[in-house]
Design brief:
By secondary structure, this protein is an alpha+beta fold. The protein contains 6 helices and 13 strands. Helix 1 packs across helix 6. The structure holds iron/sulfur cluster.
Length: 187
Amino acid sequence: MTEINWIASIIASTGFSCTRCGTCCSSGDGDANLVMVTPDEIRKIMGASGQSWDEIAEPYPEKIPREGGRVFTIGWCLVRRNGICGFYEDGACRIYEHRPWICRTYPFSLDGDTVLTHPCPGLGCTITRKDARAIARDLIKRKNFERVDEEKIRRVLQENPVPPEKFVVIDNEGIKVPQKKPHKSTV
Ligand code: SF4
């Protein structure tokens, strides 16, 4: 069975239909609804929303300490207000056509060859074979996208020393000093 077919068959047997409850965008258990975004995704949202980088994204809230007082985080996540995604308005996503991969594939993700499900009231609802295949296709695209992202980040870490006495964000383009500090982490 091809990869897309086995993923689609798992999604079809799990069942899913978006009930438009907005739970995944508007509430989370601590940082459970954090949406990680790459520089490319941030720029796509900048183009669609007219908002600046810092209005869209903030450093991922996990500080990684290194010797010599160095501290950094890996990547960015969408800005939230009181735990609600900054793009969730009037019960809908303001950037729906440009939403990141994590949002496109929720409540599913891939961990190697395993299809994971995440809390969602729509799980268990009837899904067509066509829709299951569409989600499976997006999951495979997301996996490839994330693989490239991780490889680039690994290279940045190998080739660039983390500067001392500054909190920095390492993403797939390099080392950046963020305008904003990360919010208090529960990660
Ligand atoms: S970007 Fe859109 S789909 Fe993703 S969490 Fe925010 S409101 Fe929800």
